Amino acid sequence: MSAELRYVYAVTRPFDEPLPAELRGVDGTVPHTLLHDGLQAVISLVPEADFAEEPLRAHLEDLDWLSGTARAHQAVVDALTRLTCPLPLRLGTVYRDDEGVRRMLADGGPRFRRTLDRLEGRVEWGVKVSTERPEEPPPEPSASAPVSGRDYLRRRRSQVTARESALADAERLADALHAALARDAEDVRLHRPQNPKLSGASGRNLLNASYLVPGARSEAFLELLERLAASEPDVRVEVTGPWAPYSFAAETADAPADAAGDTSDDADASGDGAGVPEPT
């Protein structure tokens, strides 16, 4: 029988309520908690044949496997968000045994506690702002309406100028919306613009950001966002969340390099998410 490794979803402080009985993690496993020195890791027992370093790296090249595993990882973190403030670890953080998990909690204890203190009661909201329509190349002149070369170039310059002006206006709107949201949030992370070929979204992504907001102020934050979006009809505004504060915890919640399946270059639990689906 294959040996079992410890897949770690997140670090939390101890909480009183049990994990939902129906909750399933990666590979259909049942998550549970492992307590050490006032902190706990939320983990699952997973087969070494799939989650040791080499097979895990191979699996991460399989988009279907990666997508299903990322959704399961996300489901556990979402469940934790309803119970406590979790520090999500990156997708594919695996240790050989319970003792390895305890060492991770001990070695990272001071950082974990500082981050938990900073993020307690906070959630992450993702906001994307895009141009309303995809950019289109200027149409070719109709064969039934011939024009001179000079007229054709003049028409093309006019069309290009109009598109550039519209894009500049949209960028100013996105900047103004971001500035207003940033003033209302406690912290902000700017992510790389989404590639429309990968996201399937139309238009150009002008803003891809995460905002750290106290849970008690989330309703007011969303009301502000709705007012701002309604006042800017020339751009498309999308919001996702509330999420565990991936973008604000990852730099302190990443597992040490002795994790058995550490895949720091393959998947990441923050922002556009990456490994764990975004907050897309």
UniProtKB/TrEMBL annotation:
Domain of life: Bacteria
Coiled coil: none
Compartment(s): Gas vesicle
Primary location recorded for the protein, binned into one broad class: other
Compositionally biased spans, kind Low complexity: 253-262
Alphabetical keyword list: Gas vesicle
Annotated region described as Disordered, given as residue ranges: 129-152, 253-280
Pfam families recorded: GvpL_GvpF
InterPro entries for this protein: GvpL/GvpF
Family: Belongs to the gas vesicle GvpF/GvpL family.
Protein name as it appears in the record: GvpL/GvpF family gas vesicle protein
Protein species of origin: Streptomyces albiaxialis
